[in-house]
TrEMBL record:
Record GO biological process: glycerol metabolic process; lipid metabolic process
Lineage, uppermost ranks: Eukaryota, Metazoa, Ecdysozoa, Arthropoda, Hexapoda
Signal peptide: 1-19
Keywords per UniProt: Glycerol metabolism, Hydrolase, Signal
Protein name in UniProt: glycerophosphodiester phosphodiesterase
Catalytic activity from the UniProt record: a sn-glycero-3-phosphodiester + H2O = an alcohol + sn-glycerol 3-phosphate + H(+)
InterPro entries: GP_PDE_dom (IPR030395)
Annotated family: Belongs to the glycerophosphoryl diester phosphodiesterase family.
Domain of life: Eukaryota
UniProt EC number: 3.1.4.46
């Protein structure tokens, strides 16, 4: 019951969100994003502040709360089925340790032992239950309830929610470690399987046009426009392959590959991707400060030859200059410490999430991977409203200043007044 009440409240919030964007249509836009539209909210692994990450209810909740895109991570089972899970392994995110029948699948790893998704068939995997990991404020109440979803189940959620909520919800699958998954298979196996799976569900792969997908609701099939798709990956060769075989929009994930954080590096990425995605900190304290803080080293000569690191406040503009959108990760719930600025603020003090998001909205960041979708949506709406007020204030101030100058010119009084 409590959950239902929450969902109803949140549906109301979503309605508010859509009415606010209608209200703003045609007015001066506060957004400095590449196409002048509001920053997109990518729900990081579903809605893990309320429900375990990468679960069907987690994806449903993220959709209801108003995410623009809902993120699944994709791994492959032994029988080559896509499942949604963040890690390649299962020890911390599932109850596999309580399953003696899988003891023989335990593998030695550098940090002890683990079970790999790649060693389980889908049928075997479906006997496990999700356990919330990296807990922090994330609830433990749902441990043991949910199974690891397949990619098909994820698509089912998004299509059903698109139909039921009557709004666009994008899909942004991340291919996890294609080089690992393609071992013992034909080359680009994982990438090909993704293209095939999307095509089977009606997504247009090779032409930039609308595709028709189906939503199963109440046992009936309903046609829906296919949700927008962005495919993300850390491995550039996988993206290059997808680009050669499809017209899908691609997102390059960048962790700490120093070369890609330079002027020439950004240009290189733009040859493959439409979205450039990296740590938010690089756009706040700068690349060198953040890398130093994380004990990462780089080759100074090489970085200089690539034009140097792009300064924090120029980063979004530089990505835009190459026709790409910039998407940053990861924005936590406001009750968790933000890591923004740890390199310059000792001790990583928790900070105001509104202040944090407003900073990146001001920079014109096109998308953010967020946790607590409702909270982020509310901050975004407030930013829009504030900007309108600021716009009015700006005009009023300009008018007052012009009037003062005029009065000064005419009467000789009030000279020296300006604002
Ligand atoms: C769905 O949204 C469209 C426009 O976005 C609107 O024209 C249509 O009436 C809506 N359908 C329902 C059932 O609300
Ligand atoms: C590929 O096969 C080899 C030999 O059977 C095995 O050791 C390795 O773990 C396999 N790789 C993957 C990713 O399954
Ligand atoms: C960097 O290295 C120092 C010294 O080994 C260590 O104390 C610190 O925790 C490291 N910082 C990070 C962010 O890992
Ligand atoms: C650093 O980069 C330069 C230029 O690419 C290269 O010549 C040099 O060997 C690199 N140094 C190291 C230590 O890798
Ligand atoms: C005030 O006078 C200056 C110089 O004479 C002129 O450039 C300016 O346009 C005038 N401003 C107004 C508001 O009339």
């Amino acid at each position: 019951m409590i959950f239902l009440k929450l969902v109803l409240q949140l549906t109301f919030l979503t309605l508010l969100a859509s009415s606010s964007s209608v209200r703003n249509k045609g007015k001066h836009s506060p957004w400095k994003t590449l196409d002048g539209t509001p920053t997109l909210l990518f729900a990081h692994r579903g809605e893990k502040v309320l429900l375990p990450e990468h679960t069907v209810p987690g994806y449903e909740t993220a959709s209801i709360l108003g995410a623009d895109f809902v993120e699944p991570d994709l791994c492959l089972t032994k029988d080559d089925q896509f499942v949604c899970h963040h890690d390649l392994f299962l020890r911390d995110g599932s109850d596999v340790e309580n399953h003696p029948e899988f003891e023989h699948l335990k593998r030695k790893t550098p940090d002890g032992f683990n079970w790999f998704i790649r060693d389980f068939t889908l049928a075997e995997l479906k006997t496990l239950r999700i356990v919330q990991q990296n807990t922090g404020i994330r609830p433990q109440d749902y441990n043991g309830f949910f199974t690891i979803p397949t990619f098909q189940e994820y698509l089912g959620v998004i299509h059903r929610m698109t139909f039921k909520l009557n709004r666009t919800i994008g899909i942004v699958p991340e291919l996890k470690n294609p080089s690992f998954h393609n071992a013992n298979r034909t080359s680009n196996f994982m990438e090909k399987l993704l293209l095939q799976t999307l095509a089977e569900h009606g997504y247009p792969i090779n032409l930039i046009s609308d595709g028709y997908c189906e939503a199963t609701v109440d046992g009936g099939k309903h046609p829906i426009p296919c949700p927008p798709v962005i495919v993300q990956c850390f491995e550039t060769p996988a993206l290059e392959y997808l680009k050669s075989q499809s017209d899908l929009e691609l997102l390059q994930l960048i962790q700490d590959q120093a070369e890609l954080l330079t002027y020439k590096g950004i240009k290189e990425v733009s040859k493959v991707a439409k979205y450039y995605s990296t740590w938010k900190e690089y756009l706040y304290v700068g690349v060198a400060a953040e890398m130093t803080y994380n004990n990462k080293t780089w080759n100074e000569t090489l970085i200089d030859s690539l034009g140097g690191f792009v300064p924090a406040r120029k980063f979004a503009k530089e990505v835009h200059r190459h026709g790409m959108k910039v998407v940053l990760f990861t924005f936590h719930d406001s009750r968790e410490p933000s890591t923004r600025g740890c390199a310059v603020v000792p001790g990583c003090q928790p900070e105001d999430k509104t202040k944090e998001l407003d900073y990146f909205f001001e920079l014109g960041v096109d998308g953010i991977f967020i946790e607590n979708v409702a909270e982020s949506r509310a901050i975004l709406m407030d930013f829009e409203a504030q900007e309108e007020i600021r716009g009015v204030r700006r005009s009023a101030r300009n008018f007052a200043s012009a009037l003062a100058t005029y009065t000064c010119n005419v009467s000789g009084y009030l000279c020296g007044y300006s604002s």
